[in-house]
C-alpha cells in the first residue's frame, strides 16, 4: 500500500525522503490558491522563485511578475497575492514569475521529488484523482509561515488524507494529526480558523473575501506540476 505523509513546515523537509515521492505543496492563504486560479483563467506557465530579485529579473525579461512579502504586494510588480488578481483576460497565455513569503520557497525546496504538484482546496478533487492514478508515495508539504506551523495548510493536508485514506496508509503522526484536525473543522472551516494567525493577518489587511474564496472546495480541474523550473497545468 502506498504511504501518505505530511510535513508541517519546510524547515522539517530534510527529515523526509522525497526521491521516490510526489510532493504536494500547499500554501492556502494564498500562493497555491493564486496559482490554481491563474491556470484556471488561462495562464501558460508560472515560474516560482525564492527571492524578489529573481522575480524582478524575470519581470525585466517580459514576464508578468507577482511578488508578495508579509501578505502584501511588493512595490513595482504587476500582480499581488490575491487570487482575484488572476481573474482577468490579460493573463490568458501569459508567463508569470512569482515569489511569495512561503509558498514559492516550499516549491523550490521540493525539486528533488519525483513530481511537485501545487495543491489547494480549490483543486482538491483534481489532485486526488491524479494521485490515485500514480504508483508513488505522497508527501504533503505545508508552506507554513516563515518556517512555522500554520493551521490552514495543515487542514488542506488533512482534507487530502481524508480523500485518500482508503488507498494510502497514514505514515506518521503528523498525517494523523492533520486528518483529525480536518475532520473536526470540515463543516465550517472559516469558523474553525477564526482565531488563527494568518486569518488575523489577512483580516488586518481587509481581504476577508480572499479567505472565503480560498476555502472553497473543488472549483477547478487544474493540476499544476513543476516541469523544469516552471509550473504548467497538467490538465491541458
From TrEMBL:
Annotated catalysed reactions: (2R)-O-phospho-3-sulfolactate + H2O = (2R)-3-sulfolactate + phosphate
Cofactor: Mg(2+)
Keyword DNA damage: no
Gene3D superfamilies per record: ComB-like
EC number: 3.1.3.71
A family per Pfam: 2-ph_phosp
Molecular function terms, GO-annotated: 2-phosphosulfolactate phosphatase activity; magnesium ion binding; sulfopyruvate decarboxylase activity
Enzyme's top EC category: hydrolase
Keywords: Hydrolase, Magnesium
Keyword flag Hydrolase: yes
Family (UniProt): Belongs to the ComB family.
Protein name from the UniProt record: Probable 2-phosphosulfolactate phosphatase
Lineage of origin: Bacteria, Pseudomonadati, Bacteroidota, Cytophagia, Cytophagales
Gene for this chain: comB
Amino acid at each position: 500500500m502506498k504511504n501518505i505523509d505530511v510535513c508541517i513546515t519546510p524547515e522539517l523537509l530534510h527529515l523526509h525522503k522525497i526521491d521516490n515521492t510526489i510532493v504536494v505543496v500547499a500554501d492556502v492563504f494564498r500562493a497555491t490558491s493564486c496559482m490554481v486560479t491563474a491556470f484556471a483563467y488561462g495562464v501558460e506557465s508560472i515560474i516560482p522563485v525564492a527571492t524578489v530579485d529573481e522575480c524582478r529579473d524575470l519581470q525585466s525579461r517580459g514576464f508578468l511578475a507577482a511578488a508578495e512579502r508579509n501578505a502584501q504586494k511588493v512595490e513595482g510588480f504587476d500582480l499581488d497575492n490575491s487570487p482575484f488578481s488572476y481573474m482577468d483576460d490579460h493573463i490568458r497565455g501569459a508567463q508569470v514569475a512569482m515569489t511569495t513569503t512561503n509558498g514559492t520557497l516550499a516549491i523550490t525546496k521540493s525539486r528533488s521529488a519525483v513530481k511537485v504538484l501545487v495543491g489547494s482546496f480549490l483543486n482538491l478533487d483534481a489532485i486526488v484523482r491524479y494521485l490515485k492514478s500514480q504508483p508513488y508515495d505522497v508527501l504533503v508539504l505545508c508552506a507554513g509561515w516563515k518556517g512555522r506551523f500554520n493551521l490552514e495548510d495543515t487542514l488542506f493536508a488533512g482534507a487530502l488524507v481524508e480523500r485518500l485514506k482508503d488507498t494510502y496508509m497514514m505514515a506518521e503522526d503528523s498525517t494523523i494529526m492533520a486528518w483529525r484536525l480536518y475532520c473536526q473543522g470540515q463543516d465550517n472551516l472559516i469558523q474553525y480558523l477564526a482565531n488563527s494567525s494568518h486569518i488575523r493577518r489577512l483580516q488586518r489587511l481587509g481581504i476577508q473575501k480572499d479567505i472565503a474564496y480560498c476555502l472553497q472546495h473543488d472549483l477547478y480541474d487544474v493540476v499544476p506540476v513543476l516541469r523544469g523550473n516552471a509550473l504548467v497545468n497538467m490538465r491541458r
